[in-house]
Amino acid sequence: MTQLGALAGGNTAFFISDCQWLTSVPSWFAEQASLSEAVLLFNLSTKPFTNFWLWPMKPYQQTTIVECGEPLVPIPLKEFAFVQPHPYRCLGAPYGNASPFYLRQGVLDRLRQAQDYLQQHQSNWRIQIFDAYRPVAVQQFMVEYTLAQTAKAQGFDPQALTEVQRKSILEQVYQIWAIPNYDLATPPPHSTGAAIDVTLVNATGKLVDMGSPIDELSPRSHPDYFKALLGDLPLGSPAGLATTTTRSSHLTQQQRDAAYEADQHRQLLQTVMVAAEFQRHPGEWWHFSWGDQMWAWSTNQQRPHSGIEACYGRVE
């Protein structure tokens, strides 16, 4: 995929990849689609309009952005723990002169508050920064990288995927990666400087066990996965446990203890971040934001009719 753009027609948004900008969407497509919100992904390297995919538009992307103009600022190295060297840079992600360890000032202020709350619960524990600011070009790089790695893991050659195979794998990739969209109305969360991926380290600097690594493409990434595993959520919950085969009755005591510990650590991270007014990504235990579209949408879901708008859009 190359640069992603967007077109809006009525209430329908179309995200476009691997093609030049279009000025209209075929009427036959709009009539057949009958969708109030959709994402159109197609490839014009083949015959036009014969190869397209629909991706559901995420609800938070409808949130209005009123950019406040607040600058990106560096996250102080002495105040927090950091994952070094940065994993995406190691892969060759095109940051240019940008740094993954920058945030909007208002977000940084709240991150400091979250760490203060953390240390009230666990003395000398710190928040570890995995990733913060992410240019759209880096988002695109990581989507392509994850697609290739997922294809290999499933026994496919990433360079020889059929359109059906590519679509299937992208559906998995987009479970945790936002579409690398350049449209200012629907920026990837990390490109706003308002989203951050974090975990915890203890007083000795050791990584706290969260049960799964950041960016893992599996049901374990869901914040409530271990709660569901232990039987504290109903079957068929969003954590991805639809049968009793992996429920707590089938776990050894050691597995139960490990699951309980991981869930407690996830709950602690959420508690301190929410206390500082962050909102957690509904599908990722590590992703939190303040001031972006996802934050505003989540806040409005909790406080109906509050009408909160995002104050941070894409920033370069």
Number of domains: 2
Instruction: Let me know the largest β-sheet.
Output: 5 strands, mixed
CATH architecture annotation name of the largest domain? 2-Layer Sandwich
Which sequence of strands runs across the widest sheet? 6-8-9-11-10
What is the averaged pLDDT score?
83
Helix content: 25-40%
Percent strand:
5-15%
Low-confidence stretches: 1-53
CATH class of the largest domain: Alpha Beta
Task: Tell me the CATH topology of the largest domain.
Answer: Muramoyl-pentapeptide Carboxypeptidase, domain 2
The string of secondary-structure elements, in order, is EEHEEEEHEHEHHEHHEEH
How far apart, in Å, are the first and last alpha carbons? 21 Å
The geometry reads as globular
Report the radius of gyration as a whole number of Å: 20 Å
Write the layout of secondary structure elements.
Layout: E1 5-9, E2 12-16, H1 27-33, E3 39-42, E4 52-55, E5 72-74, E6 81-82, H2 87-90, E7 102-104, H3 105-121, E8 126-131, H4 136-153, H5 163-173, E9 195-201, H6 225-229, H7 253-275, E10 279-280, E11 287-289, H8 293-302
Parallel strand pairs: 6-8
Antiparallel strand pairs: 1-2, 3-4, 5-7, 8-9, 9-11, 10-11
What report would you give on this structure?
The chain has 316 residues and is of the alpha+beta class. The protein folds into two domains: 1-57, no CATH class; 63-302, Muramoyl-pentapeptide Carboxypeptidase, domain 2 (2-Layer Sandwich). It contains eight helices and eleven strands. The strands form four sheets. A five-stranded mixed sheet has the order 6-8-9-11-10, sandwiched between helices. It has a two-stranded antiparallel ribbon with strand order 1-2. It has a two-stranded antiparallel sheet with strand order 3-4. The two termini are 21 Å apart.
